[in-house]
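Consider the following assembly input.
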Amino acid sequence: MAEYGRDCRAQPFMTSGHGSAQASAVLTAEGIGKRFGSGATAVTAIDEVTLSVKQGELISVIGPSGCGKSTLFNIIGGLITDYEGEVRIDGRRVSGCHPDIGMVFQEESTFPWRTALENVEFPLEVRGLPAAERRQRAQQFLGLVGLTEFADRYPGELSGGMKARTAIARTLAAHPKILLMDEPFGALDEQTRLLLGDRLSQIHRELGQTTLLITHSITEAVHLSDRVVVMSYRPGRIKRVVDVDLPRPRSSEIIESEQFGHLVASIWHDLREEASRGLAADEASRRSS
Amino acid sequence: MHRWLAPAAGFAVLVLALAALEWAASVGWVSPFLTPPPSEIAAAGWRMAAEEPLASAFFSTLGVVLAATVAAAVMGIPAGWAMYRFPLLGNAYENWVAALFSAPLILLYPLFLVLFGRGPLTIGMIGFLSGVIPVILKTYEGFTAVPVVLVNVARSFNLPESALLRKVLLPAALPTVFTGLRLCFIYTTINVVGLEYLVDVGGLGFMVGLMYDRYDIPAMYAAVTFVLLISMLGFSAAERLERRWGRGA
């Protein structure tokens, strides 16, 4: 492992060990914990999760089902407000949804009664931009995700991948400082995911957008990220951070490389144990219910 | 496929069915007393338009049905939204409203007769009551079925709570709300025409009964055809409104 990715397990903060990283972090989550329920039935979803993301960095959080990835996404995005720890943007503590954070959701989230263009216009409409300006900006971001030709189509007329891209364009149009994505291609097949990963990688390169990606796909995490945060099964804690030192710019062709294979194998080595725990816990809970 | 192909096919089937009925009646396969040939029905309709107050009966029924439907929409949609917005209200009343749906509300006619007298208002009230229940239920169902993720998207963009209803909840619930409005129109029309028929207070229902009493069967069918025309107008209007307000949904 050490040859291709750096293990940051021993470090108190997962800022990949750079001395100035903490200072230059755009997004910091410190000691995040969340319990659901109370008493004997209480479940600790995540516990003492601390991470920071630097300007322009793309970090993936990966873990087995039930490790609290989506809970972390909702806490950082401001949709869950009662939790332990704190979230900071540029050092300032934030609470609730913040205009500096743009969220892309796991579920299909385009508005079916709006065309692709009108969907992308939505955040600009909320901000009260004049119609002409928001139309121009929406067209620009729709072009960025390669959907110019489909601007007037309704989501019902688009494929799953096109809807996912529309949702990304809509979030980017709001010009967030930090892009937070929860398995944006989760509902798509592997090949489409790889191709859309290429598109995402290209957008990241063009915009230099600071991004935190929640995923359950090791391939996707290694393909896109500068660092991969591996989480343990419940309670979700950071098990390990892997630096992905593959050359950029990257395309999905990178998966053919030996380095890529080593990184995937190394992450799976850690994740396998956690995924097995998750599976066993799931089976046990189904047996008892 | 051409846009006009489906309506043209529907129209062609109707014309064929009418032609088949005309032929079956002419060769004596169906009794003209039970099912007169369409040509006789058309002639009777023409005759009624000249000799009977058909137009006023048509507009009277249409007016009562529309007034009851609009009143049911104006009161039912906010009521359904309130049941969603205040879960206590929704949990408390959903089953009650659903139970009312299967209740024979027409039995309230004597009460309304005392309150409003023997006229269109009484009939309209029965139409309204039978129509408002599906509007409330479907509006409630529509709002509760709005995917949480759409609300979360709006929140992530800091959409104010005050705009959430207008920008997200209502458009997302609109297809189901329109299902409720269509059901409302159906139940209102059935109850209004049915009561007109039973209590002789004018309108197309009364005309159907009158023609039946005169043994003028073609004219009775002509009056029934005008009732169908009201149904078609209502559905066509609902479709246009839904297309205009709920595009793509």
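Chain B is about 80% helix and 0% strand. Ask yourself how this observation constrains the way the partners meet.
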